[in-house]
Description:
- Keywords: Heme, Iron, Metal-binding, Oxidoreductase, Peroxidase, Signal.
- 33% of the residues lie in helices and 8% in strands.
- It is mainly alpha-helical.
- The strands form 4 sheets. The chain has a 3-stranded antiparallel sheet with strand order 5-6-7, covered by helices on one side. It has a two-stranded antiparallel sheet with strand order 1-2.
- Helix 7 (153-161) crosses helix 12.
- The protein starts with 13 loop residues before the first helix and ends in a 7-residue tail after the last helix.
- Bound molecules: protoporphyrin IX containing FE.
Amino acid sequence: SSVPAVKPQSKADLKKILNLLNSTNIFRQLIEPCSTFNAAWIRTVFHDCGGGSVLDNTGGLDGSLQFELSRTENAGLAPTIGFFQSLVEPGVTLSDIIALGGVASVAFCGGPLIDYHPGRVDATVANPTGRVPSATSNLQFLRSLSARLGLYPSEQVALFQGVHTFGGAHAANSPEVTNQTFQSFDGTPTVYEISYRRKALTKITSNPSLNIFKVIKEGKSILGTDHVSFGDPILKGYIDTYAHDKDLFSKNFVAAFTKCINLNQNQHLDSVILVPPTGTAAPHFKTADDKVYDVSRRGYEAPGTQPEHDTPCDPSSTQSSRCSLEHGYVETCSEKTRTWTKYKDTVLEALPAGWECHDSHKGHYLVPPAAPAKAYAKYRRSESEEEVYGEPAAKKKRSVDEF
Ligand code: HEM
């Protein structure tokens, strides 16, 4: 029998996914109007796709970030992942949520619209280590990262430099970059672009420019990677150009961002169907080792939970984050010190009263107060596969073996 190596998952349910963008949905409310969440979610996209490579077809935008929260470079991303995990349900993968969070966050901050195709398959293990850059990565590292993501130099600059028009650095996440609680990269962390014209009327009277590139050109960036990029003649050329050509920047930014959100997923987009074992109404999936797991609740049942807050914690566990004993905090298992490190749960704080933090083998996830999301409630009550999968009758009977 041919069981797919990648865990089969439900066919992407576009309706459920787009429901996240409903103006009444908390998902959308967190990022419109543009807030600090937009930057955090855009960063989340990169820290997931950045572990992938088109050169060897490993990793990608695959939700593996949930197993990588203990890595130093991912400090501060646990609250976002915990929230996103609470939205996972049949037809809605973590990776599709991460990608949607990214494109929607860009759009709601005044950035360009980026095509979004659902259907990503979630990874069941972490991506290789050592692929996501730090602020002190050298040019050679940036080049190889760029090659892994399949970016041209023009796209590399648009993405690695230009994206920092959003957000900034936090001492809690990046002590090597800033000692401030929050330090914006370009002075306008929730704005896609700002022109010279608006910032300094006297200097430039035409050609709106992107603020972040001005910061880099003036040598004022807080990221070492911006300085080394500006020192490279080819990359400098793009930094200079984008500072005066927002249309070209936007075009290449969209191209690069698209490569990141689709990384190693193109062959799956909107093409993966979850097939329940014959005779069960409850959704299950079979893994490569032929175990059948129940997915009738959010998250998946599998071993791997770290039971205690004791030290040392196990950074290689599938549970790299957990709820803190202190309300409003989450902890990640630091790969360096092998201890639980506490972070303020900014997402939990922003959600309406009643949300709770729960632990699972895939890390902590945030649970809504009383009734879960509408689509999910319907799904739980359902006895029929028809309702669960929304598939025509003929398709319902197919088994895992056919794939
Ligand atoms: C050379 C590559 C890159 C380096 C060295 C880098 C480094 C950093 C660092 C050190 C931070 C501060 C994190 C914190 O302290 O909270 C940061 C923030 C951020 N990064 Fe990057 N980054 C790179 C590429 C990217 C890419 C490709 C994206 C998105 C596609 C991205 C999106 C962001 C965003 C939006 C923030 C702001 C987060 C916030 O304000 O919460 N970065 N980056």
